[in-house]
Design goal:
Strand content: under 5%
Structural class: mainly alpha
CATH class: Mainly Alpha
Number of strands: 0
Helix content: over 70%
Radius of gyration: 17 Å
Largest sheet: none
Distance between the termini: 22 Å
Length: 146
């Protein structure tokens, strides 16, 4: 995050969650696919962790989509319809999954060290996940001050 993001309503946080959970669920699949095509042999334990992360982000993404789908649109004050506690819980869940993912990424980086393209890809994903983390910490902190 390069600028401070101001949370104006819960829809703002839900839209961010919608976008970033979509990206986060794709990253583990992309890592496994590129590793396989690059002949980088990730251990089964890491493959399982990547699969679990994909499942976690997918489930969270579905929850967010369902909440967005059920909410009224058209100038309605979202704060009145969706308790902040529910959105905070979703954000907290995302933050935990993101921390878990960053830890797994640090383990994945130990494989294919000689492959500069692979390492650059992993660094890119790490930077994106760190960006997401900073963004959601900023949004979460604003939810606790309301």
């Amino acid at each position: 995050m390069y600028c401070y993001t101001v949370l104006t309503n819960t829809l703002c946080a839900l839209r961010e969650l919608d976008m970033w959970t979509e990206i986060s669920k794709q990253h583990p699949v992309f890592i496994k696919t590129v590793a396989k095509s690059s002949n980088i042999d990730l251990p089964k334990e890491l493959i399982n962790k990547l699969d679990k992360l994909n499942e976690n982000f997918e489930a969270l993404h579905k929850r967010v989509k369902e909440i967005i789908r059920r909410q009224p649109y058209g100038g309605v004050d979202w704060m009145a319809y969706l308790p902040l506690i529910q959105v905070r819980s979703l954000v907290e869940t995302f933050l935990q999954y993101d921390i878990d993912f960053l830890n797994v990424l640090n383990q994945v980086k130990n494989y294919g060290r000689e492959n500069k393209v692979w390492q650059t890809l992993l660094e890119h994903i790490i930077h994106e996940q760190e960006y997401m983390y900073r963004l959601f910490v900023t949004l979460r902190n604003q939810m606790y001050t309301r």
